[in-house]
Design goal:
With 368 residues, this protein is of the alpha+beta class. The chain folds into 2 domains: 4-92, Phosphorylase Kinase, domain 1; 98-270, Transferase(Phosphotransferase), domain 1, CATH 1.10.510.10. The chain has 9 helices and 13 strands. It has helices at residues 54-65, 98-105, 110-129, 185-188, 195-211, 227-235, 247-256, 325-334, 338-367, and strands at residues 4-5, 8-9, 18-27, 30-37, 42-49, 78-82, 85-91, 132-133, 142-144, 154-156, 163-164, 288-289, 292-293. The strands form 5 sheets. Strands 3-4-5-7-6 form a 5-stranded antiparallel beta sheet. A two-stranded antiparallel ribbon has the order 1-2. A two-stranded antiparallel ribbon has the order 8-11. Helix 5 runs antiparallel to helix 6 (227-235). It is globular, with a radius of gyration of 46 Å. Residues 1-11, 315-349 and 354-368 have low confidence and may be disordered.
């Protein structure tokens, strides 16, 4: 991989495709980097798996194999391997997670929580339709786009412990997959994957969002009153058969509470302290711009030799030697000197005048 310099991994490109820029997060299966995808010409989140055992690698490969195209799901869209490292890339989500928002703001307004739950359930409908159970829908795995105080946009992420329906679990007795406090009782007991386990987790997360109190390790949830709390109690019923049969049905129950604002509305924005989803990514290093790598400065130009204003004249014919007869003839006939031509002219004029005067005198004498 090459030397590591602070939070920047100094390499040309991971597997010839992903240029790792800076570290943005760490998890149990590896680290997450902001990276530049040379093929897509876009920033991506690159999840790098380092030291791993067979079970971890299998979960990693399973996560990168997911191809769920949905606005509320973050799924890998490429992967690569280089030496002992494996990486897969997904969309870069800039607003942090619901856990970050909860830590910054505390308990969230009911209407805001209702929007988040609606988006989670829409994402889960697509996940379950693909035959997958997420099994770890804690707030840290619910990512947010940076939307400020406007309507949030949530995306499900981290399918590292996801299970396939009608497929035996990778581990049955040695460990429990999921985060204690959020998992359904039957999941804790080792049951095979079932979509209703995810619905239990949705209810546990909703209770935390409304109160700011995390479920304890025994699964004891905070309580409250109202239509939304009635839905939470239905989702977190200890018996799977008492819960909604699907995420779509849970979404219909949510709509019946009348707490879900109409599309585009954000009633919490008028609160004295509205929840706000900030851009959580640090500034790009100097060599990078919002649109990609900074263009390299052009090399200094070398001075060019000066060119003569006009080409030197070439003689039309060889010049005769000075003092030769040819030289003298050329000087007097072909190229007479201006200083010498004027005296000769006046001499000729004077001679002609004298000749005329002489002829006139001779004529006068003859006529006498």
């Amino acid at each position: 991989m090459g030397p590591r310099d602070g939070s920047f991994w100094a390499v040309e490109a991971f597997a010839g495709r992903y240029q790792l820029i800076d570290l943005v997060g760490t998890g149990g299966m590896g680290s997450v980097w902001r990276a530049w995808d040379l093929r897509r010409k876009a920033y991506v989140a690159a999840k790098v798996l380092g030291q791993h055992d067979a079970a971890t690698l299998l979960r990693f490969v399973r996560e990168q194999s997911l191809r769920i195209d949905h606005p509320h799901v973050v799924a890998p869209h490429g992967w690569a391997a280089d030496d002992d490292k494996v990486v897969f890339a997904m969309d870069l989500v800039r607003g942090g997670s619901v856990a970050t928002l909860l830590g910054d703001h505390g308990p969230l307004p009911e209407s805001f929580v209702a929007v988040l739950l609606d988006q989670v359930l829409h994402g889960l409908s697509a996940v379950h339709a693909a035959g997958i159970v997420h099994r770890d829908l804690k707030p840290a795995n619910l990512l947010l786009d940076a939307t400020g105080t406007g309507r949030p946009h949530l995306r499900l992420s981290d399918f590292g412990v996801a299970g396939l329906l009608d497929e035996p679990r990778m581990t049955r007795h040695s460990s429990v997959l999921g985060t204690p406090g959020y998992i359904a009782p039957e999941q804790l007991a080792g049951a095979d994957p079932d979509p209703r386990q995810d619905l239990y987790t949705v209810g546990a997360v909703a209770a935390e969002l409304l109160t700011g109190v995390r479920p304890d390790l025994n699964g004891t949830l905070p309580t409250g009153e109202g239509a939304l709390w009635d839905l939470i109690r239905t989702l977190t019923d200890p018996s799977p058969t008492a819960r909604p049969t699907s995420a779509a049905e849970a979404g219909r129950l949510l709509a019946q509470t009348t707490l879900l604002p109409p599309p585009g509305a954000a009633p919490w924005a008028h609160h004295p302290d509205p929840p706000e989803v900030f851009d959580q990514l640090p500034p790009l290093p100097p060599a990078w711009t919002p649109t990609g790598p900074a263009p390299k400065a052009p090399a200094p130009s070398q001075p060019r030799p000066s060119q003569p204003s006009s080409p030197p004249s070439r003689p039309s014919s060889p010049q005769p030697l000075a003092g030769s007869s040819t030289a003298l003839a050329t000087a007097t006939s072909s190229n007479p000197s201006p200083s010498r031509s004027k005296p000769l002219l006046w001499t000729a004029v004077g001679s002609l005048t004298g000749a005329v005067a002489l002829l006139a005198t001779a004529t006068w004498l003859f006529l006498r």
